[in-house]
Amino acid sequence: MNTANQYLKAIYLIQQQDNSPAATGRVADKLDVSPASANEMIGKLEERGLAEHEKYKGVSLTDDGIVRARDALQTYCISERFLVNVLGVEEFREEARELESVIDGTVAERLDTIIDRKPECPDCFDPELDACACLDVEFEAEHPAD
Amino acid sequence: MSLGQQVESDRQLARLLQIGIVLEEVVEARASRHYQSLSEEERDLDAEIEELLSHAAEESADHRKRLEDLIEGLTVESVPFDEIETLVEARYGQTKPDDFDGVLYDQLCNEETAYKFYDDLIEAIEASDAEFTLDREQLLAELRGLREEERDGVEAVTVIMEERE
Fold first, then answer.
1. A93-105: b or e for each residue (b if 16 or more CB lie within 10 Å)?
2. Could you tell me the residue ranges of all domains in chain A?
3. Chain A partners of B16 at a C-beta cutoff of 8 Å?
4. Which of A9, A21, B138, B157 could pair with A60 as two cysteines, CB 3.0-4.6 Å apart?
5. What does CATH list as the number for B10-163?
6. Residue B81: is its pLDDT beyond 90?
């Protein structure tokens, strides 16, 4: 289902934060997977024309990869906003991550019809907070291992 | 954090079932809103669409009840559904379908989305070894039943759309 999207989203955010290709180790850390697993999936993304990997530098998304990553990020933002605004979930970041692989774009589109999402989404996403910066909630620091 | 397509706990399962209820709520609200938007004359002229929407609303209400029953079998705190209902109704009070094709197309999207949701959920449960408070086979049987009904819904709308082409 959506595992590739989780990788695309992670690479996209790391590239944004670092302003350079995403090192495989950073991708593995962000997704809490082994470097070998990250390497394998990055290879698959390359085969599908969604990413390019350069030895010693890291992985960059292609234009198609960026489109997919932004869609995945938007779906994630919708999940977070839905959990906070409709269901009143406090641990929304943790739960959004759990839902990420099951809630796809089609379902998110319907959930989107009952939430107030900002037009700038998904550019409103703050990788440091791991959340939409426009959410009207108090952010508490999360443990790095989360 | 875990990566993959698995449902790992009662809490996560309950949340997904709850999302299913909201989706069903959205389907019901949209169908009902569309039905109300038809004029008396249109309602007389188009008994087929009237029946389709009325059936969709009834089926969604039934699906919500079945999802609620599943959640009750899990060891999680219950969630206030009245608030969700009010919120969804308020949102759909503002929408207005432009024409009959729009109504049918929208209904097709509703049914397809619900089908996709149950299909993904079933796959995620099947991929997991987690033990839930609910009997696993009973849970999967119920979800497969819901998915089947959504598939029938997709077919029913598709048939009407093809007849009208």
1. bebbbbbbbbbbb
2. 3-66, 73-132
3. 99, 102
4. A21
5. 1.20.1260.10
6. no
In this structure, how many other beta carbons lie within 10 angstroms of the beta carbon of residue B160?
A: 17
Asked if the model's pLDDT at residue A41 lies above 90, the reply is yes
pLDDT 10s digits, A73-132 = 999 999 999 998 888 888 898 889 888 878 888 899 888 888 888 888 888 888 888 888
Burial class of residue B49 in the structure, from the number of CB atoms within 10 Å of its CB (0-12 exposed, 13-18 middle, 19+ buried): buried
Q: What is the pLDDT of residues B107-118, one digit of tens each?
A: 898 899 999 999
* CA–CA distance, B153 with A34 (Å, rounded to integer): 43
- Selecting from 2.60.40.4070, 3.40.30.10, 1.10.10.10, 3.40.50.300, what CATH number does the domain A3-66 have? 1.10.10.10
Surface of A (82-111) touching B: CB under 8 A: 82, 86-87, 89, 94-95, 97-99, 101-104, 106-107, 109-111
Test B3 with A107 for CB contact under 8 angstroms.
no
Q: What is the pTM of this model?
A: 0.84
Cβ–Cβ gap B120/A86 under 8 Å: no
The pLDDT-based confidence of B2 (bands split at 50, 70, 90) is very low
For residue A10, what is the nearest residue in chain B, using CA coordinates? Answer: B3
